[in-house]
Q: What sequence folds into this?
């Protein structure tokens, strides 16, 4: 229950029509305040007036006269007198609130003063809320401008990055034919290496054949030398025989 909706529980001798009028006027002030609440939650701790201290045993409806049996109350003073006659003394204690009121409430004069003070306090709170809302909106606008600048800077950076990526893509496109040519050259070189390997294998086989031939020639030369030595020995023997004769 809000501050303005709790008017019906004040222990004051006033008519229900005055209460309805005060409640309606306060409700008109509360509605725009409630509409501002979503915009001021970050900067204000509360956008409504603090609830007044209420007394359950002093509600107005408990001490109103039975109007179904009375057709003429004899004016507002007689009406107040009829209420004060039945209201216990404990219900005349002070009403505590944030506006500083600390006195018993009796009659329409205190009710009007109370209503004026509430309206003044509500208007002051509304001005504070509006000022804080304006400050919040101004800060939000500044933050939005800052974010917009950051977004524009990021957009420019992304555009530069996109241009750089396009340049890299162009270079890769130009490099691709060169890589294909290099691959063909490597294939040719690999073919050359394979041919060279075949030639080397053939040369190794021929070297092995030559080695075998050299071995055969060596054995032949050894046989020639051996026979030459035999021949020289026979010649020596013949020469000795000739000398003996």
A:
């Amino acid at each position: 229950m809000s501050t303005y909706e709790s008017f019906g529980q004040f222990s004051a001798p006033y008519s229900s029509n005055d209460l309805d009028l005060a409640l309606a006027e306060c409700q008109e002030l509360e509605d725009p305040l409630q509409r501002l609440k979503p915009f001021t939650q970050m900067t204000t701790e509360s956008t409504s007036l603090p609830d007044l201290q209420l007394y359950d045993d002093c509600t107005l409806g408990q001490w109103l006269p039975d109007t179904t049996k009375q057709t003429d109350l004899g004016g507002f003073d007689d009406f107040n007198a009829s209420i004060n006659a039945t209201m216990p003394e404990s219900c005349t204690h002070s009403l505590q609130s944030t506006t500083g009121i600390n006195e018993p409430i009796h009659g329409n004069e205190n009710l009007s003063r109370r209503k004026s003070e509430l309206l003044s306090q509500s208007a002051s709170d509304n001005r504070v809320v509006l000022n804080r809302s304006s400050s919040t909106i101004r800060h939000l606008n500044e933050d939005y401008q800052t974010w917009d600048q950051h977004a524009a800077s990021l957009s420019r950076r992304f555009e530069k990055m996109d241009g750089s990526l396009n340049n890299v893509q162009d270079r890769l496109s130009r490099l691709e034919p060169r890589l294909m040519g290099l691959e063909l050259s490597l294939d040719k070189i690999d073919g050359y290496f394979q041919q060279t390997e075949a030639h080397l294998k053939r040369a190794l086989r021929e070297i092995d054949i030559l080695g075998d031939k050299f071995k055969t020639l060596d054995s032949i030369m050894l046989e020639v030398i051996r026979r030459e030595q035999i021949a020289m020995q026979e010649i020596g023997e013949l020469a000795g025989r000739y000398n003996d004769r």
